[in-house]
Every structure is written in C-alpha cells, then in structure tokens.
Design brief:
The chain starts with a strand and ends with a strand. A four-stranded antiparallel sheet has the order 1-4-3-2, with no helix packed on it. A hairpin with an 8-residue loop joins β2 and β3. It has one domain (2-82). It has strands at residues 2-15, 24-37, 46-62, 65-82. It is built from no helices and four strands.
Length: 85
C-alpha cells in the first residue's frame, strides 16, 4: 500500500490564558470515514480514501475534572493506492 496524496481540510489551534508549562497532554486520532475511490489514474490498483481527525490536548485537573487549556486539531484525508489482494 502506498500513500499517493494527502490533504488538510481543517487546522485549528487554541491556547487559553490559564495554560501553563507542565500540563498533562493527550493525543487522539479518529478515522472518520474509509471508502474506495474510483480513479482512472492507476491501473491494476484501487484507491482508498481515509478521512481522519488528529487532536493534541493539554489539560490540568481542577477538582477531579479535566480542564483543557490548549488544543490543536488537524483534519484531512489520505489517499492510498492498494493492490487488489
């Protein structure tokens, strides 16, 4: 399987005033949609499109609740070329 293209559809970043160095952080990736794409560019191969959302959140705990103090979110899609196997 080869990556033949990728695209960002949304980039968001926010830092709140209460952000401090040393906050805990968490990363997450979600695959929102995976589907076969029809393309005539590649012979004997199929194209697969994967839509994703990647997030990196910084937080601190306040009275046993997590409060997000900064966050970066990247959304986009990746195109893969795959053999029929």
């Amino acid at each position: 399987m080869q990556i033949i293209g990728f695209n960002f559809t949304k980039i968001t970043a926010e830092k709140k005033p209460e952000f401090k160095r040393g906050n805990s952080h968490r990363t997450n990736i979600e695959f929102l949609d995976i589907k076969k794409e029809d393309t005539s560019l590649l012979m004997n191969q199929h194209t697969i499109a994967v839509n994703y959302k990647y997030s990196l959140s910084y937080f601190h705990e306040e009275k046993k609740k997590e409060k997000i103090t900064a966050e970066i979110i990247l959304e986009g899609n990746i195109l893969f070329a795959a053999d029929e196997k």
